[in-house]
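#structure-requests
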Amino acid sequence: MNPAEAIAELKELSTQIESVTLVDRNGGVVASSIGAAQAERVAAAATELVAGADELRADLGRDALAQVQAAMADGSVFVVVDDRRIAVATTGADPTVGLVFYDLKALLRQTEGGHEHPSAAAGEEAGEE
């Protein structure tokens, strides 16, 4: 499935997810529900978060990193990784953690092999910044 279409479908179905950005493992935006400039910042931050979490995981002798949640009082950031991509979502306060992780894993499966250029990000098409 086309990444932008998959993100739009996820946003339509999920009442908890506020934004979604799909990133390649080099930090490039594949598609996003937010504007291009913000998506680039999210991609850079998520790439750093994954690198740090993966370093900690390795130091602890744990298996490969699969997912990360950062919870704040007013919302959460969820990150799910596979071999090639990173899916990042933001939510409001008190999300259903398992459901958000499930939705992001489904997004990665749906978009396997789907390639999109940052200029085709869903948020940019919608004129969001």
